């Protein structure tokens, strides 16, 4: 039992109720009370939350967790370089233990950042041994996860037809288990023969949702959406990742079939899937959740997702208005909305909304306490949504509960073997580095910089003569 005392409680319930000086009581796995001056039951651990913000655990609907072993390696990559490295050249060198290592580190990172539910968009599952390793890692960490099964080394119609895939699903998943869910993860290329049809049929037979990278510049486009729609595979549980380069017709098909889009703003901005699409999704009334995609560039931190999503959406709005010689006086996208996307957006997308996504009596206790007594950024808390979206960061996550269990307290993960994760990741790096060879390893991290020329400038503001390379006085 836990009783959080005296916080600003951002409930994210349907009315978006915000309470001040309020308490939240957790009994077992469940939120048992929210209000002021709650009585602490005997034996309850009381956590002082004064000055802090209590919010629902955040939900990341698309993260390639196996890639976390390569944290930061691809900071200067484009999407093309990512595809070449993982899909064509080196993704197949990942062994089951490497998938385990990446997943373990990614899962720990998620709960540390207050991300209590993460979809592991696991497209490195070359064998079911890899898949078992992925699940073993997720189950070693006290977070809530959804394994989205994929394999970039085969067509989805191939891996989904394998008897060992069916066996794996039967062995490792229990329908209705809200700690470990299951999805199928594959992309639709737009091939008119629609070979992905067989994989969609497997998903339908298993009763699981599909998550798919859609509207990715140069990779997936409107043809894929149209094929899915024509074959009636667009369902309310379908998650469209990025959806950044789709036309209005595709957005209308998504909106009309009840699907949602997982927006990875940091990824779309840097890698080049397309302009982060929330400005278009809002126009079509398409539900949004947020995601961090891959730690080969970014960390699994949804504060960052909220911040960049607000920035990208508003940036687009200003840019389009300026092109019409207009000024935006009132911005459309609000901090409150992105906090909703980081919480309820995820729970709705994953069909988990009855259980998580908000702080309400009867829901599972996935709770984040933002509080940092030594930070000059954590007061005053005047606008709680603005504070969560623009001021707070992962270092301000003081405590995290998942399913009623304390997993972070006083800014430190609880009962977690970070050293084991470090060793596992080091072994993976040794393996990859020696397999690739030192030259390829270094080259992979340092892609060529395209030639750039500084624009000719007709003005001079010094008497610097570039020709003689000397300063004149
Ligand atoms: Zn992705």
Quick take:
The chain is of the alpha/beta class and 473 residues long. Helix content is 36%, strand content 20%.
Task: Give a verbal description of the structure.
With 473 residues, the chain is α/β, with parallel strands linked by helices. It has 16 helices and 17 strands. The protein has helices at residues 79-90, 96-112, 128-139, 156-159, 163-172, 197-206, 222-230, 248-257, 265-271, 278-284, 302-323, 335-342, 344-349, 384-391, 418-436, 438-445, and strands at 2-10, 18-27, 30-35, 45-48, 53-56, 58-63, 115-122, 144-149, 180-185, 209-214, 239-242, 260-263, 288-290, 367-370, 397-402, 405-409, 412-413. Strands 1, 2, 3, 4, 5, 14, 15, 16 and 17 form a nine-stranded mixed sheet that branches. Strands 6-7-8-9-10-11-12-13 form an eight-stranded parallel sheet. Helix 2 (96-112) packs parallel to helix 3, helix 12 packs across helix 14 (384-391) and helix 15 (418-436) crosses helix 16 (438-445). Zinc ion is lined by residues 62, 64, 121, 213, 241, 293. Zinc ion binds next to loops.
């Amino acid at each position: 039992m836990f009783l959080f005392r005296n916080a600003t409680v951002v409930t994210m319930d349907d009315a978006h109720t915000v309470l001040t000086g309020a308490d939240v009581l957790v009994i077992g796995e469940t939120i048992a009370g929210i209000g002021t001056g709650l009585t602490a039951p005997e034996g309850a651990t009381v956590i002082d939350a004064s000055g802090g913000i209590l919010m629902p655990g955040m939900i990341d609907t698309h993260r390639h967790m196996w890639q976390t072993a390569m944290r930061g390696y691809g900071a200067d990559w484009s999407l093309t370089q990512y595809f070449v490295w993982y899909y064509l050249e080196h993704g197949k060198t990942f062994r089951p233990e490497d998938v385990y290592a990446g997943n373990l580190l990614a899962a720990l990172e998620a709960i540390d950042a207050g991300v209590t539910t993460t979809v592991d968009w696991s497209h490195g599952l070359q064998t079911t041994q890899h898949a078992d390793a992925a699940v073993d890692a997720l189950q070693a960490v006290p977070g809530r996860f959804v394994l989205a099964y994929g394999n970039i080394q085969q067509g989805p119609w191939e891996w989904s037809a394998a008897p060992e895939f069916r066996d794996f699903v039967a062995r490792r998943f229990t329908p209705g288990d809200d700690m470990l869910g299951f999805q199928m993860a594959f992309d639709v290329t737009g091939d008119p023969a629609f070979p992905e049809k067989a994989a969609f049929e497997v998903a339908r037979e298993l009763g699981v949702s599909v998550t798919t990278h859609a509207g990715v510049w140069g990779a997936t486009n409107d043809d894929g959406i149209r094929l899915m729609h024509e074959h009636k595979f667009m369902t309310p549980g379908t998650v469209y990742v990025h959806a950044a380069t789709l036309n209005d017709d595709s957005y209308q098909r998504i909106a009309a079939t009840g699907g949602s889009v997982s927006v990875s703003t940091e990824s779309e901005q840097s890698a080049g899937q397309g302009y982060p699409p929330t400005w278009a999704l809002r126009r079509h009334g398409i539900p949004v959740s947020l995601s961090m995609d891959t730690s080969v560039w970014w960390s699994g931190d949804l504060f960052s997702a909220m911040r960049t999503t607000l920035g990208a959406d508003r940036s687009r709005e200003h840019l389009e208005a300026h092109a019409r010689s207009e000024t935006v006086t009132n911005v459309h996208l609000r901090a409150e909305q992105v906090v909703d996307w980081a919480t309820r957006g995820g729970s709705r997308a994953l069909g988990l909304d009855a259980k998580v996504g908000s702080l309400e009596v009867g829901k599972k206790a996935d709770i984040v306490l933002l509080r940092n007594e030594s930070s000059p950024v954590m007061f005053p808390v005047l606008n709680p949504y603005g504070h969560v979206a623009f001021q707070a960061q992962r270092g301000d996550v003081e405590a995290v509960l998942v399913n009623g269990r304390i997993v972070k307290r006083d800014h430190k993960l609880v009962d977690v073997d970070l050293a084991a994760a470090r060793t596992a990741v080091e072994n993976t790096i040794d393996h990859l580095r020696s397999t690739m060879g030192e030259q390829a390893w270094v080259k992979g991290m340092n892609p060529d910089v395209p030639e750039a020329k500084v624009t000719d400038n007709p003005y001079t503001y010094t008497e610097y003569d570039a020709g003689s390379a000397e300063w004149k006085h």
